């Protein structure tokens, strides 16, 4: 499964019912379909996957999938068609309808080795770590950072220090299974009102990638916001400044204006302290705006092109960020996730 040419599914390959349902979820997420549509297929996949072998065989024999709560006529049809030895019709339709993402940025996309900002169901993402990272590997990534939210963002089920510790144990075990692909340990840590970070410093120092973002009091005055952001990017544990203006330009959550801050001062701090400016690929963010992206280029900043993915299909949104990077003069040499893993980790350590 994937959205760019090198890993597009083989049309002749027939997925099993669970795989077919999950791939449908991927394509729906990638095309920005409504959340409830995606959840129907992902929920059905989880239900079928959890069935004991004998129950699965019985439903297959009696064609009684619709008797199971959570499986409706459309998902039942996908299951039946997959079991019949055919690629389900709806999956064929979605594969054919999939459009390339960010075509002008395709040469840059081919140079990216990973994604440094993603979420799982440990915070406000919709899928388990294993599924998110399996898709990241299928998309051709060599590494992918898991950056669930920090505790203050309770609406996003942010991770306490204890939960983050438990997540690190889970990631260590998964990395043994997924090698040579590497899950990078990480967090999207809130920048608090004072500019301090919403997690213990000793824990942040252990992580591979720390993305620092403002999620609260986005309408603070320019002086206050500038001070918050500079204080945060100067922190030696911070590697990436996430979605710096906080704006929303479209989507289900509505729109939101940019935060007000002195961009020259913030970007100079990023350059001085070795903190990359994130080019957030989410279509509803497109952050930073083009004028600020060009300013950051002029000021000599480094960048990270990230998806901020909250679902597997969104991991293929990196093309949107690549398109904006190319349009605004960001060269590959200034993008940290073009680096091989060892060089990336050396870079993160160089300013800690």
Task: Describe this structure as you would to a colleague.
- Strands 1-2-3-4-5-6-7 form a seven-stranded parallel beta sheet, covered by helices on one side.
- It contains 14 helices and seven strands.
- The N terminus is likely disordered.
- It has two domains: 93 residues, Orthogonal Bundle (DNA polymerase, domain 1); 248 residues, TIM Barrel (Alpha-Beta Barrel), CATH 3.20.20.
- The protein starts with 16 loop residues before the first helix and ends with a helix.
- The protein is an alpha/beta fold.
- β5, α11 and β6 form a beta-alpha-beta unit.
- α1 runs antiparallel to α2 and α10 packs parallel to α11.
List the helices and strands and how they pair.
Elements lengths: L16 H14 L4 H16 L2 H10 L10 H11 L5 H9 L8 H4 L4 E2 L13 H10 L4 E4 L14 H18 L3 E9 L10 H6 L2 E5 L8 H12 L6 E2 L21 H11 L2 E5 L9 H9 L4 E4 L11 H10 L13 H10 L2
Parallel strand pairs: 1-2, 2-3, 3-4, 4-5, 5-6, 6-7
Helix pairs in contact: 1-2, 1-4, 1-5, 10-11
List keywords for this structure.
352 residues; alpha/beta; DNA polymerase, domain 1; TIM Barrel; 7-stranded parallel beta sheet; elongated
Note the total helix count.
Answer: 14
Mean pLDDT: 95
For the record, the CATH class of the largest domain is Alpha Beta
What is the beta-strand fraction?
5-15%
Number of strands: 7
Q: Topology as H/E string?
A: HHHHHHEHEHEHEHEHEHEHH
- The CATH topology of the largest domain, please? TIM Barrel
Largest sheet: 7 strands, parallel
